[in-house]
Design goal:
Blueprint lengths: L6 H11 L1 H7 L8 H10 L3 H9 L5 E3 H5 L15 H16 L11 E3 L19 H21 L11 E9 L4 H9 L6 E10 L4 H10 L7 E4 L7 H10 L7 E3 L12 H15 L6 E3 L9 H5 L8 E3 L7 H9 L8 E3 L5 H4 L1 H11 L5 E3 L10 H8 L7 E3 L7 H11 L7 E3 L25 H17 L6 E3 L8 H32 L1
Parallel strand pairs: 1-2, 2-3, 3-4, 4-5, 5-6, 6-7, 7-8, 8-9, 9-10, 10-11, 11-12, 12-13
Helix pairs in contact: 1-3, 2-4, 3-4, 4-6, 6-7, 7-8, 10-11, 13-15, 17-18
Length: about 525
């Protein structure tokens, strides 16, 4: 599919395609043409031109999402191109904007917004090398430190020290880039480029380091907080966090697995859970909550009832919810506002079929994403599922990997899914009849790939044919056995893998030592 370009955009492409000529001629370019030239340079991956455009940026703001998004001159959105060449040129250009004393333009730049970049699985840039959120965090922190060194060493124009640019960014911090980011945040006051953290993700960090850096980010500006995987944050630490730090603008909160575990609750823990709920209730902007892989049996009401703003996104996958939890969700004021819901890991047909369908009917007018992985949905439940999904006319994404459905049931379901007008993405399970007879669900990791691959390919072709015959080529259907693509995990998997091996080694050593003592 070719996106139409205006004559202006074609001219901009021609201008920037000769990098040497373009760089020499920038001084004669009208200010209002800089955004157009920036997008054209980004499309053509003209790193040197991008650098010089940013170094001489004549406008008050520089918003990556808007600059690369759909424009009248070129409708295609380039904000999902996290091209390493382009982004590095952009950030070094920003550093040199501060240092450049001979720029013909008055330095007006006050706000740089890097939050509009979208990290996706498939990249269309020629260099094929991406710069993800972690690497953007790393590079910006490094450039801020370099900038301070340059300012201290060089004979700078006094005006340089008056430059103050707020750089809005989604920070991603792990053990490996922690020290660099901390240094940049500590020196924020004296650096012309001021890191303003809008979203913060931490992984593979000790609790001490997490608590220290979160205070440095200026939590009053934070809209999104993700504490994931290897940060051992439990309920008592969460209560401490909420008691010591206020998050007035927080809209989205993701907590690591096992933050809550009601199986070992005492009376003190019950009070602690109530306190955490009350603190979340004070976050009046909070509309997205991910508490997956915590054990919250019978406690959802205690945790969520203090919330004063309805949730638009709720992930309670693998939280061991009981009927009372599901009844609370179905009858709560959140139900009518849920745009994304994940109930994976719950035996819905066995435990609370009617309550689940009540919840689904309440959110059907707004629901965009539904995830029901490993929910024991079988062939006998498909007609009921179709009935429940029929009103969900805004559904864009439906994921139901890990359910024991036959090829025939999947074909029946796909015929219905073609009727959902907004649907764009379906993640379906390997059919039950592709596995050996007697396979038990949920399928363990060792058996996950032991299915008839040829038969699966035939069934997948038939399912795609159903979409094709209904003129629904716009729907992507796939079976990601080991979970959907996660840009953050993908970018840091080497570090996380090394951490897991280290943890396993330490556990093994402790076990060996204990065993030796016993012997």
């Amino acid at each position: 599919r070719t996106t139409m370009k205006s004559l202006r955009f074609i001219s901009a492409e021609a201008f920037v395609s000769n990098a040497e000529f373009a760089r020499k001629s920038l001084g004669a370019v009208a200010h209002d043409l800089f955004p157009l030239l920036f997008k054209a340079s980004y499309l053509l991956e003209q790193g040197e031109v991008i650098h010089d455009l940013v170094e001489n940026w004549p406008l008050f703001d520089f918003n990556m999402g808007k600059l690369l998004g759909a424009t009248l001159d070129y409708q295609e959105d380039l904000s999902h191109r996290t091209c390493s060449v382009c982004l590095e040129s952009c950030l070094t250009g920003l550093r040199d904007y501060v240092l450049n004393q001979s720029s013909p333009y008055m330095k007006k730049l006050r706000v740089v917004d890097l939050t509009g970049m979208k990290d996706v699985e498939v990249q269309f840039c020629k260099c094929k090398k991406t710069m993800g959120r972690w690497a953007r965090t790393q590079l910006l922190s490094k450039l801020c430190s370099e900038l301070l060194v340059c300012l201290q060493q060089a004979q700078c124009n006094p005006g340089t020290f008056e430059i103050s640019i707020n750089v809005l960014i989604d920070l991603f911090v792990t053990e490996r880039n922690y020290d660099l980011v901390v240094q940049a945040l500590l020196k924020k006051c004296s650096c012309p480029l001021k890191i303003c953290c809008v979203a913060f993700r931490s992984d593979n960090l000790t609790l001490q380091k997490f608590f220290y850096i979160i205070k440095l980010t200026d939590p009053s500006l934070l809209r999104k907080l993700e504490v994931v995987h290897n940060v051992h944050l439990e309920m008592e630490h969460l209560e401490m966090l909420f008691n010591s730090i206020h998050f007035p603008l927080l809209m989205s909160l993701t907590l690591p697995a096992r933050t809550f575990n009601v199986r070992r609750f005492t009376a003190t823990d019950e009070q602690m859970l109530a306190n955490v709920g009350e603190k979340m209730g004070e976050m009046t902007q909070l509309t997205e909550l991910n508490i997956s892989f915590s054990i919250l049996t019978g406690r959802i009401q205690k945790l969520l009832s203090p919330l004063k703003t309805p949730l638009k996104m709720l992930d309670v996958s693998n939280c061991s919810l009981n009927h009372a939890d599901m009844a609370f969700l179905a009858n709560s004021f959140h139900a009518n506002h849920l745009e994304a819901l994940d109930l994976s890991g719950h035996d819905i047909p066995e435990l609370y079929p009617s309550t689940f369908f009540k919840l689904l009917s309440h959110c059907s007018s707004v629901l965009r994403s539904l995830t029901l992985e490993d929910c024991n949905i079988q062939d006998t439940h498909v007609n009921m599922l179709i009935l429940g999904l029929s009103p969900c006319q805004k559904l864009q994404e439906f994921k139901f990997i890990g359910n024991p459905l036959s090829s025939q049931a999947l074909k029946h379901l796909f015929t219905f899914l073609c009727e959902l007008p907004m649907l764009k993405n379906v993640e379906f399970p390997v059919p039950r009849d592709c596995y050996p007879v007697g396979i038990t669900y949920p399928i363990d990791d060792a058996s996950l790939c032991r299915y008839d691959h040829q038969k699966y390919e035939r069934v997948a072709e038939e399912l795609n044919l159903i979409l094709l015959q209904a003129n629904r080529e716009d729907v992507k259907a796939s079976t990601p056995l080991f979970g959907s693509y996660d840009a953050a995990v993908e970018e840091t998997n080497n570090e996380l893998g090394a951490y897991l091996i280290k943890s396993f080694k330490e556990t093994l050593e402790k076990f060996t030592t204990s065993f030796s003592k016993m012997s």
